[in-house]
Design brief:
Keywords: Cell membrane, Membrane, Symport, Transmembrane, Transmembrane helix, Transport. This protein is mainly alpha-helical and about 450 residues long. About 80% of the residues lie in helices and about 0% in strands. The chain has 17 helices and no strands. Helix 1 (about 5-40) runs antiparallel to helix 7 and helix 2 runs antiparallel to helix 14 (about 360-385).
Length: about 450
């Protein structure tokens, strides 16, 4: 069904996702805090900057997907963007964390423009990087393995920031020092740029694109005529809120509920252990149960693992950390299952419509991720506003209870809500086998 992807190539692909998630996680975890507590931008205004920029950027994602689907170069469809864009986004990342010391108005303008530019350049790297996984092999098992390794690499990248980000800031002067964020951003951006570049340099695209030119209008059919994809994207819109909410609120939570920013490290350890175990366990479970059943079960159990520490262990840090790890285990399962399902929808598109549309599928997934990020920031901004949060405010029981609710109950509700759209995902294991068989025959003609 296709040659295996060399081990070296898999490692570099995983490394590219590691670097990308180091970059994304650093931005997700610290940019709002940097804006509110370092630059002095009001919480609601800072949240509005992130939300508006995310929405504008997200709307450009499908356009980027269609551009990559029409790209034809000697390097392939997706690799050129991985070779030339990473260093641009690295420079923009540094700009986002640069305190120019100007007036409040100038600070606001620079923050708005730099974050908008960052999001646009992130898309230029993110869409081709994930789309590459769909053309790296014709073998669906190899693609799933590559995706799993990529997700593991991405998780390690997120964990590296969750555990080491605060240590990095402390090494450069502490979380209340603007230079600490600048120097940390320089280091993070450099690591990310090099790792993504190496992915583009070492990867190969083994699924040859169709020589037929597909118009933008026709390419859009990949989305609106692909019912399984629509159901999956709706579910991902909700499930992505879980990590978005937690990444944005956890620094506030550990500072004001647990009393010390250093506890971010312990949360990161729970994340890495839970997510990696969940990701490793998922391929084995998929050999025993359907993808749909595994996804639904992981959501139900993930919701339960969020509610328990809220009810019984909010003041017991070790108890809460254990259940953080358990909930991250089920989050890891949903990540692998949903990505494997996404690859199946691309095969479904080729089977039903005659073209794959990898670029627009993954760019739409990126759109969903960013839109979820915007919604999560709206939720965080609204929550902080509702709690009357101001930087360095005294700790109150009301603030602690509110942050705990956001940290535990909102993710629990998202887990449950994500089940509803996935009930309409209709690619069964039997149909998937038929699709792959039919595609093998049609590709051989």
């Amino acid at each position: 069904m296709g040659t295996k992807v060399p081990f070296k190539e898999k490692i570099f692909f995983s490394g590219g996702l590691l670097g990308q998630n180091i970059l994304y996680s650093f931005m997700s975890m610290y940019i709002l805090f940097f804006y509110t507590d370092l630059l002095g931008i009001p919480a609601t205004t800072a949240s509005l900057i992130l939300v508006v920029a995310s929405i504008v950027d997200a709307c450009l994602d499908p356009v980027m997907g269609m551009i990559t689907d029409k790209t034809r170069t000697k390097w392939g469809k997706f690799r050129p963007y991985l070779l030339f864009a990473p260093f641009l986004i690295a420079a923009t990342t540094v700009l986002c964390f640069w305190d120019f010391g100007g007036s409040p108005t100038l600070t606001l303008v620079i923050a708005s423009i730099s974050y908008l530019l960052w999001g646009m350049l992130y898309t230029v790297c993110d869409t081709p990087l994930w789309a590459l996984s769909s053309v790296i092999s014709k073998d669906p098992d190899e693609r799933t393995l590559v995706v799993t390794l990529g997700k593991i690499g991405g998780t390690l990248g997120a964990v590296a920031v969750t555990i080491g980000g605060i240590q990095l800031l402390l090494a450069f002067g502490g979380e209340r020092n603007t230079d600490a964020y600048l120097y940390s951003a320089i280091l993070v951006a450099a690591i990310a740029a090099v790792s993504i570049f190496l992915t583009g340099l070492t990867s190969k695209e083994r699924v040859t694109p169709s020589p037929d030119k597909i118009s933008f209008k026709t390419n859009l059919q990949t989305i609106y005529k692909n019912k399984p994809l629509l159901a999956l994207l709706a579910s991902l819109l909700i499930i992505n809120l879980i990590n978005g909410i937690r990444q944005s609120i956890q620094l506030y939570y550990v500072i004001y509920v647990w009393g010390d920013a250093v506890y971010v490290t312990q949360v990161g350890i729970s994340l890495v252990v839970g997510m990696l175990l969940g990701m490793v366990a998922t391929p084995k479970l998929l050999r025993l149960f359907s993808k749909k059943k595994v996804f639904i079960a992981s959501c139900l159990l993930g919701s339960l693992s969020c509610v328990i520490p809220y009810l019984f262990g909010d003041e017991n840090r070790m108890f809460a950390l254990v259940f953080f790890g358990i909930s991250f285990f089920f989050s890891g399962m949903t990540i692998i299952v949903s990505t494997s399902m996404l690859l199946d929808t691309i095969d479904y598109s080729e089977w039903k419509l005659g073209f794959r549309g990898e670029g627009i599928v993954f760019s739409t997934n990126t759109f969903i991720t960013k839109f979820s990020g915007a919604v999560s920031r709206i939720i965080i901004g609204t929550s902080l506003g509702f709690l009357n949060y101001v930087e360095n405010q005294p700790v109150t029981p009301g603030l602690q209870h509110g942050l705990s609710f956001v940290m535990f109950i909102l993710p629990a509700l998202c887990f449950v809500a994500a089940i509803i759209p996935i009930l309409f995902y209709n690619i069964s294991d039997k149909q998937r086998d038929r699709i792959l068989s039919d595609l093998e025959i049609s590709r051989a003609l």
